Amino acid sequence: MARVEQDGTAVNAPVVPGRLPLLGHALPLWREPIAFLESLRDHGEVVRLDIGTWPVHVLTSPDHVHAVLVQQAQKFGRGRVFDRLRPMFGNGLVTTDGDFHRKQRRMIQPAFHRNHIAEYAAVMGRQADEMTASWTAGRAVSMITETRRYALASVAEMIFSGDLSRPAVAEVHRSLPVVLEGMLVRAVMPKALDRLPIPLNRRFDTAAARLRQIIDQVIAQYVAAGEDRSDLLSMLLSSVDAETGTTMSPEQVRDEVIAIMFAGTETSATTLAWVFHELGRHPEVEARMHAEVDAVVGAGPVRPEQLSALTYTNSVFQEALRLHSPLLFTRRALVPLTLGGVAIPAGAEVAYSPYALHRDPALFRDPTVFDPDRWLEGAKDRPRDHRYVPFGAGQHKCIGDTFAVAEILTALATVASSWRLVPAPGVTVRQVPAGIPQPSELPMIPVPRR
Question: Which residues are annotated as a binding site?
Fold first, then answer.
């Protein structure tokens, strides 16, 4: 166990072994971030690690995470990781807090009402059909590329309409992978290093600036046209807060669009790629999912009202998301408090890893085993809600979680109605650290089912 330091009568968090002068725990976090974050549970439920000279209190217990996100949420604000993402996301829901966050959430929430989700699911179905129609039997495709293209096309059609969106969509295809490459590193490295003229910084800053500029241009064209295009961008531009009577500035709309585009594209695309990977490794699970899709959807196309009947398919998705969850989130203590008998001073950074929580053997039976049955109704070891937090919880829970579920189930059912995806031989798929760990590569071979 890590050592416990005493400061008068207060108990400080145990410090994770291996801290070096000036560097802290930066080396193991840089070299093997996934393994290092998983190892922290061995040292306590609230432990301290140092990234350089920046101390972070990491929570390894779901009860403490629940306390921070829900029970004592008013005592915490956004943490450093979110602050460091502000150059990309501006003042969108992803980075803001307090009254401003609540106002923005009120204004955006109607866009994710179930009636709109059904409309979006129809768009997703068309995009999934286009994806699968482009495949050739026996010719390998990169599922990383395919799922990203599908998710981006679905989100872009939801946000924009008509020719005005084409430059923005093209720029997202160009810039988003670059931003993702640097986002995790940028989030944890000292801010003083941001201005170093190293390739990672140059690529990140240039891509973020290009993306913001092109979306600003599209918004200006929408404002100048002054017409409702029946898309999400028009909805955001015309939204009025019921409590204050205010609208969003074009700059605020841009920040929200970037946040929605990122979350609806990269998070969903990465998770969907992992689902196909797991199905390729577990043909018995794939066969059961195909049987359900055949019974509910038939030969397709997938209709929005069919998604709720795909219960086993949803279990497959949830299990893949459990195994391949976001790596790290942070909060900042606004007042002094105690968690698990450990003193947390005001201003302290508090972090938790959904990835590590979801693979904790104390919380999940056979945590590294891909087992969709654990999610079925009535399963004796069905995960409890507060132990499974891929979308967060409380006031900052992902506003688009139902959108993401519809996006992924639509793609899974569309593919399953026509194809099997077989892993390409001779390829070892590794996890690459990122906001959500990415597959190193994922070539798969489409095989017709009919």
Answer: 398
Residues 57 and 381: beta-carbon distance below 8 Å: no
Q: Fold for domain 72-326+390-448? A: Cytochrome p450 (1.10.630)
Q: Is 30 exposed, middle or buried (0-12, 13-18, 19+ CB in 10 A)?
A: middle
Per-residue pLDDT tens over the stretch 4-20: 444 445 689 999 999 99
Contact 379, 90 (CB under 8 A): no
pLDDT in tens, 17-33: 999 998 999 899 889 99
**What whole-number distance in Å separates Cα of residue 325 and Cα of residue 437?**
7
DSSP state of 394: G
CA 336 to chain centre: 30
Tell me how many degrees the CA angle 56-62-317 measures, rounded to the nearest 5: 110
Q: Where in the chain is the domain with CATH 3.30.43.20?
A: 1-71+327-367
Q: Is 337 helix (H, G, I), strand (E, B) or coil?
A: strand
Helices (H), strands (E): how many in the chain?
17, 14
125-178 pLDDT tens trace: 999 999 999 999 999 999 999 999 999 888 888 888 766 567 777 777 777 767
Rounded distance, CA 237 to CA 253, Å? Answer: 7
d(CA 375, CA 359): 15
Residue 132 CA to residue 446 CA, distance in Å, equals 9
Q: Which residue has the tokens 């893949």?
A: 320
- The helix/strand/coil state of 10 is strand
Both structure tokens of 288 = 């059961």
Is the alpha carbon torsion for 428, 143, 278, 421 positive or negative?
negative
Indicate where the chain has its CATH 1.10.630.10 domain(s): 72-326+390-448
- Position 191 scores a pLDDT of 64
Report the percent of the chain where pLDDT is more than 70: 92
**Which residues participate in the annotated binding site for heme?**
398
Name the DSSP letter for residue 247: B
Query: Whole-prediction pTM value?
Result: 0.90
From the options 3.30.540.10, 3.30.250.10, 3.40.50.2000, 3.30.43.20, give the CATH code of 1-71+327-367.
3.30.43.20
